[in-house]
Amino acid sequence: MIDLKDKINSLVKKYFKQVVEIRRHLHQYPEISFQEYKTSEYIVSLLDSWNIKYQSGIAHTGIVCFIEGKNPDKKTIALRADIDALPVEEKNSLPFKSKNKGVMHACGHDAHTASLLGVILILKELKGFFEGTIKFIFQPAEEKLPGGAKQMIEEGVLENPATEIIIGQHVYPELPCGKIGFKKGTYMASSDEIFLTVKGKGGHGAIPNKITDTVLVTSHIIVALQQVVSRLSPSGIPTVLSFGKVIANGATNIIPSEVNIEGTFRTMDETWRKQAHKEITKITTSIAQGMGAEVDIEIKVGYPVLVNDEQTTNNAINYAKEYLGSNNVEKLDYRMTAEDFAYYSQKIPSTFYRLGTSSDPENVCPLHSPTFNIDEESLRTGMGTMSYLAIKFLND
Fold it and tell me: Which of 204, 288, 303, 336 has a CA 20 to 30 Å removed from the CA of 44?
């Protein structure tokens, strides 16, 4: 009888160099959300060379491919990787540094994609050892609303055949290479974008009684909105409301007629999320009107709360411990960051886990930074673990 762990480790060793080369190619040629045309073409060229059947052009640049085991109609699971990059100018000194100015794989999606391609190479050789079908999803636009996951789902990515569970992984520089981390249940926050425009009669700063001080109104709004977090949010529900952009384009003695504010609202509860939108609107409108100004309010509803299915995640943890050893599987806390994998988690049982990528977790460059990089040894863990999980979920 095949020793699954040993066989996968042997195939990881066989394909590791090739997967590193794939990752470096992807890193050199990053593309931003919904513009991943060359990335998609590159993935398709590999699938063609490996004789893997696929569908392309889903959500413009997305790809779905399949490997069928024994009794392919018995069960279908999906594995997902995101393929887009960020509008960040890379500052690493690497031989495979980004060649696309102002664009960088600063969130590790190159590693996600390369790892999943490695899983395809491994499972292609092991298709006689598992039941059912594995669906591989290469998804565009994780980094930009409304998110590629939402569009791929709308275009039927979880159908034909119907998918029973979905698994995703994401690089995590705070964990060392060789380790992965899980959290059962609610894991990542919803993410909404807040756009406010305070309007009034601008004019000379020396005669504020003749104008509307839009800057002062804005400052009151920003301060007052913090009560959404500190006073109005239900006890025990993590909530964040932050404003990162305020444009009051006046001068030392000119109050502008318009001030633009942009921020983010995040929480871990969908019911409270909807109520908070009403509270933000009510507080903002009340203050603006009370101070003689008008305000336009736009709340762009973004990604939902990401919930890892309890049973699916518990099974994944146990499988991961079999493959990596219990000491290499960590328990994680919730995160106020967001992920459009959450759309999948709303549709079918899912688990989204973290892949340790650092050789020095105490001194790492964070995700989305211009010097972010991974220890490529982590790709061994990434493709090996996901291969093992896939087979165990299909066969157990």
Answer: 303
> What does the mean pLDDT of the chain come to?
97
> How many CB atoms neighbour CB 231 within 10 A?
8
Side chain identity at 282, as an amino acid letter? K
Q: Are 180 and 186 in contact (CB under 8 A)?
A: no
pLDDT the model gives residue 2 = 66
Residues 6+ apart with CB under 8 A from 286: none
pLDDT in tens, 152-162: 999 999 999 99
Please say whether the beta carbons of 124 and 36 come within 8 A. no
CATH code for the domain of 199: 3.30.70.360
Domain boundaries, position 292: 192-300
Residues 152 and 219 in one domain: no
- What angle, 0 to 180 degrees and rounded to 10, lies between the N-to-C axes of helices 310-324 and 4-28? 100
The total number of structural domains in the chain stands at 2
CA gap 159, 140 in Å, rounded: 18
Query: Tens digit of pLDDT for each residue in 319-365?
Result: 999 999 999 999 999 999 999 999 999 999 999 999 999 998 778 88
- pLDDT bin (cut points 50, 70, 90) of residue 1 is very low
Q: What percent of the chain has pLDDT over 70?
A: 99
Which of 300, 331, 351 terminates a domain? The answer is 300
pLDDT in tens, 235-263: 999 999 999 999 999 999 999 999 999 99
Q: What tokens were used for 262?
A: 């942009």
Q: Are 259 and 246 in contact (CB under 8 A)?
A: yes
Closest CA to 273 of 341, 189, 368: 189
180-207 residues labelled b (16+ CB within 10 A) or e (exposed):
bbbbbebbbbbbbebebbbbbebbeeee
Is the bond preceding 256 in cis, omega lying within 30 degrees of 0?
no
Rounded Cα distance between 330 and 187, Å, is 14
DSSP 86: B
β-pair type (180-182, 329-331): parallel
Asked whether residue 52 falls in the same domain as residue 174, the answer is yes
Catalytic machinery residues = 84, 142
CB-based burial label for 326 (10 Å; 0-12, 13-18, 19+): exposed
Neighbours of 219 (CB within 10 A): 15
From CA 183, how far away is CA 332, in angstroms rounded?
Answer: 5
